[in-house]
Amino acid sequence: MLIAKNDAYHKQLDFADAEIGDVFWVVEHVPYSGTIKGVQKYTVTEIRSKLVICQSELAKPMKIKRSTLQENCYLENDPYFADIQKTFEISSQVEWVRKLIKEHESRDFDQEVVDAVLAWQRRVEMRRE
Fold it and tell me: What is the pLDDT averaged over residues 84-102?
């Protein structure tokens, strides 16, 4: 069973007692930035004496030393990870919306879209005050 160690904001996963089928999430950050580049789900598929082999649907198998605490790895039920995942999902949607807006001409937008953006802008400004 995977165990989270340390405090709420600097958790690390301990793979010493990992079991086949354990699931965890790896958060990739842009170097020297608070920006989240990706969130990837992994499953423990094999356990060796010194290594744990983990597989993701989209990435290569990952080898993790059983004796080393792993940073940027979270259990699904971790409230801090839920916050990270929500932030990443919203950021991804915002980037997608920005791309959509750039692809369209001004005449493609109706008043409903403009009103929604202006309402959002007012909410942002109110939060800043």
Answer: 91
